[in-house]
Write a structure and sequence with these properties.
Blueprint lengths: L2 H4 L10 H22 L3 H13 L1 E3 H8 L3 H13 L3 E6 L2 E9 L1 H10 L2 H9 L3 H20 L7
Antiparallel strand pairs: 1-3, 2-3
Helix pairs in contact: 2-7
Length: about 150
């Protein structure tokens, strides 16, 4: 291997992580104006999507669904509760576990948010087939990385 090729894999443009990272940042930015109208941050929106789907969920299940740790999730839940969109109640059999329930106000917010996914999808400029492929490959990579228990080595 020549000296020039030795470091080829370290070039930024040869990394799959960088366009995913940059795209994720840009995608979150694209949500900004829509979410501002709802008074939500992107992380709050992610939580609300789970709540709209389930209406009642444990904090453990919510953390799993959203890939958010409790340190991130706790202040988000408090803000959503203060906004009147959900309630938090401790489980009597396990005080560490919270049950989250969607309120009437939280349910009504769903109607205001319903157009956001199609607006964002149109901004991405992908065909439906491309969108589906991107979705499937992203989730496949995420699942593979989450299930890989091997230790990293250099």
């Amino acid at each position: 291997m020549s000296k020039n090729n030795k470091y080829e894999s370290l070039k930024l443009n040869n990394q799959v992580c960088f366009p995913l990272y940059a795209c994720s940042k840009e995608l979150t930015k694209q949500y900004g104006p829509y979410l501002k109208e709802l008074g939500l941050t992107y992380t709050q929106y992610v939580v609300m999507m789970v709540m709209w789907e389930r209406e009642n969920v444990s904090s453990r299940d919510l953390a799993e669904c959203t890939h958010l740790d409790y340190g991130t999730l706790t202040p988000v839940l408090k803000r959503l509760e203060n906004a009147g969109y959900l309630t938090r109640q401790r489980m009597p059999e396990d005080e560490r576990l919270l049950v989250l329930s969607l309120t009437k106000e939280g349910k009504s917010l769903k109607d205001r948010a319903v157009k956001i996914p199609s607006c964002i999808a149109s901004r991405m400029g992908l065909t439906m087939d491309e969108f589906k492929t991107l979705y499937e490959l992203t989730y496949k990579a995420l699942s593979n990385m989450e299930n890989d228990n091997t230790e990293a080595e250099l």
